[in-house]
């Protein structure tokens, strides 16, 4: 079967199911908002326990990473992501999921060659390009402030 790129795109459009964009957007918005609201509740709880704002923020971040890793290990984060879509990509929980998920997928290959090697397959580029962007922005800010 020989098709032009345009014919192929038309073929894909006919075969692909319609995407419920309004429903998907609403679910992503509500889920992302619920994760953020949960984070705010956790932080408020730490503040009520007497932690200062910085310590409460740190404890909240640790709690959200731990909760996300636990839900990923139990297979619940994937089920939530299938339901809510992009709403689960809230940076801290999504990042924890991106580290834990490949580690679990490749644990059968061994601790070093499986879990340790594959752990950062998804998160690694985020770390590299995030660090590079931070350096670039820092240099630009330094140059702009010194002029």
Task: Annotate the secondary structure layout.
Layout: H1 5-15, H2 21-48, H3 53-73, H4 76-84, H5 91-105, H6 111-118, H7 123-146
Helix pairs in contact: 2-3, 3-5, 5-6
Give your account of this protein's structure:
The protein is mainly alpha-helical. It has one domain (19-146). Helix content is 79%, strand content 0%. It is built from 7 helices and no strands. Helix 2 (21-48) packs across helix 3, helix 3 packs parallel to helix 5 (91-105) and helix 5 (91-105) runs antiparallel to helix 6.
- Listing every helix as H and every strand as E from the N terminus to the C terminus, the arrangement reads HHHHHHH
Count of the separate structural domains:
1
Shape: extended
What's the average pLDDT?
A: 88
Number of strands: 0
Distance between the termini: 62 Å
Unreliable stretches (pLDDT < 50, length at least 5) are: none
Main beta-sheet strand count, sense and barrel state: none
Radius of gyration: 21 Å
Give the oligomeric state. single chain
Structural class: mainly alpha
Counting DSSP H or I runs of 4 or more residues, the number of helices is 7
Question: Helicity range of the residues?
Answer: over 70%
Strand content: under 5%
